[in-house]
Amino acid sequence: MTEIIVEAAPSPFRFDPASTALVLIDMQRDFVEPGGFGESLGNDVSILQAVVPPLQAVLADARERGLTVIHTREGHRPDLSDCPPAKLMRGAPSMRIGDPGPKGRILVRGEYGHDIIDDLAPLPGEVVIDKPGKGSFYATGLDDLLQASGITSLIVTGVTTEVCVHTTVREANDRGYECLVLSDCVGSYFPEFQKAALAMISAQGGIFGWVAPSPDYLSALTADEPTLSA
Ligand code: C5J
User: Is CATH 3.30.460.10 the classification given to domain 4-222?
Assistant: First the structure.
């Protein structure tokens, strides 16, 4: 067993890479690019672009180390049979789920807008979890997959911090997984929600997780590497 220790809030986060997965939540065109679900709700999606470069670095490192990598996508079957009416009819968006948009039908599986952005595209062999809800555990096989792989810790990234990231971390925490959320690799359309959502995770002694910036996570991994002597 290799123990990595990351300086995190509210306390050091300890994990073994062999039993840890990097989770990238919903880095889909529908949330991150114009013309998708996020923009249809009135959001300025450009703010989420800041997440991409640090997340690319974390993903590259995970691939190099052979960490388990899991991508998720929020979306619905083409007949919308897995989309609750309340979700479909909520609010007054410019386009509803299932409507045709510039990147295909909004938040529908198989459409261009539903897929993950090119910069973070899954490699063959990486798991992609399709989920109808905000949480990555609800109505998916994620829990079974993690258990079968002996995964006990999650490094959590993606969008949006206060919605799908939060829901997933809460679900994971209730199932006994230890979650480290990388603060610069998660993004919200609302700066005030980003701040509050991260604070809520690590408050009260880490009520449902730990939070650290990705450079601290990456340097903890690097510090564990053996140094070559001359
Ligand atoms: C939202 C998500 N915000 N991926 N989904 O509806 O956070």
Answer: no
